[in-house]
């Protein structure tokens, strides 16, 4: 199954419980991250304000990027019902894609510190916040998308191994909230998958950075967890647990952080294990 994301047009920050602000556009490196790690990227636009993104036409022609247009009657009527027209467009498109069963696993994705959902599309969830700090290598700036896509095709095995090892980590966390988890993580394929991708990335690109990657796991999924198991997981991770490890390729310290959490996501995500993704550039991981 392909991995698809519905992203916002830029970085959004919460001002207070009723207001958010678009604080900046994504950098070229942010889009390098999106292109490298996701099969399909959807960035909704709207009929009122269109913001172009780096290499937009080139990415659309390559089949990686889609820019569906959401129609609004006016800015003022929309802003009364939600605090950001771009977030509303993202939620509308995400709901449609998630509801439409296809060969792509769709998830909402934002760059920043937290996922922010337009008010009228929010639902509260008990979740497990799994953060991978300083883990995902990304080439820095000024990489032609065609070069990145060529690298992605050539190194599809390494990328698939990384995705698979992250998914396996999630399942291990959910079934083994015990004192042996750190040892299990240390022996998992995740560390080697990260190192393998670091190695080939450094061979291809002059300079790379690291991205932090966070997934909110849904603890209300009945097909995966019983209510008693979910309660045990919440109790086990209420105060959070951190598991550091060091890459032998870059020498940089990485970390897996797990914490029980209450979050918001789309109502359409009720039956999905992964509620949302968050990523941001690490300030430490430049090689």
Automatic annotation (TrEMBL):
Superkingdom to which the source organism belongs: Bacteria
Pfam families xrefs: DUF6236
Listed name of the protein: DUF6236 family protein
Protein's organism: Flavobacterium potami
Organism lineage: Bacteria, Pseudomonadati, Bacteroidota, Flavobacteriia, Flavobacteriales
């Amino acid at each position: 199954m392909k991995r698809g994301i519905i992203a916002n047009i830029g970085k959004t920050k919460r001002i207070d419980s009723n207001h958010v602000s678009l604080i900046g556009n994504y950098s070229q490196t942010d889009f390098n991250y999106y292109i490298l790690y996701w099969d399909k990227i959807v960035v909704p636009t709207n009929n009122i304000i269109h913001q172009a993104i780096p290499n937009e036409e080139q990415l659309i022609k390559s089949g990686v990027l889609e820019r569906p247009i959401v129609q609004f009657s006016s800015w003022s009527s929309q802003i009364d019902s939600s605090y950001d027209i771009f977030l509303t467009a993202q939620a509308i498109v995400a709901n449609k894609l998630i509801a439409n069963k296809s060969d792509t696993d769709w998830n909402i994705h934002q760059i920043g510190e937290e996922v922010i959902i337009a008010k009228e599309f929010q639902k509260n969830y008990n979740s497990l916040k799994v953060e991978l700090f300083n883990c995902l290598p990304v080439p820095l700036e000024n990489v032609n998308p065609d070069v990145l896509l060529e690298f992605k095709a050539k190194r599809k095995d390494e990328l698939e191994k990384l995705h698979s090892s992250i998914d396996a980590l999630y399942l291990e966390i959910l079934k083994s909230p015990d004192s042996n988890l750190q040892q299990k993580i240390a022996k998992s394929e995740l560390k080697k998958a990260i190192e393998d991708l670091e190695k080939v990335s450094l061979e291809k690109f002059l300079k790379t950075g690291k991205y932090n990657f966070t997934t909110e796991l849904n603890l209300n999924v009945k097909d995966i967890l019983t209510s008693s198991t979910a309660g045990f997981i919440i109790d086990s991770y209420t105060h959070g647990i951190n598991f550091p490890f060091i890459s032998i390729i870059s020498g940089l310290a990485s970390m897996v952080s797990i914490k029980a959490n209450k979050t918001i996501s789309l109502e359409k995500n009720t039956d999905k294990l992964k509620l949302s993704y968050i990523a941001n550039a690490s300030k430490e991981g430049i090689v």
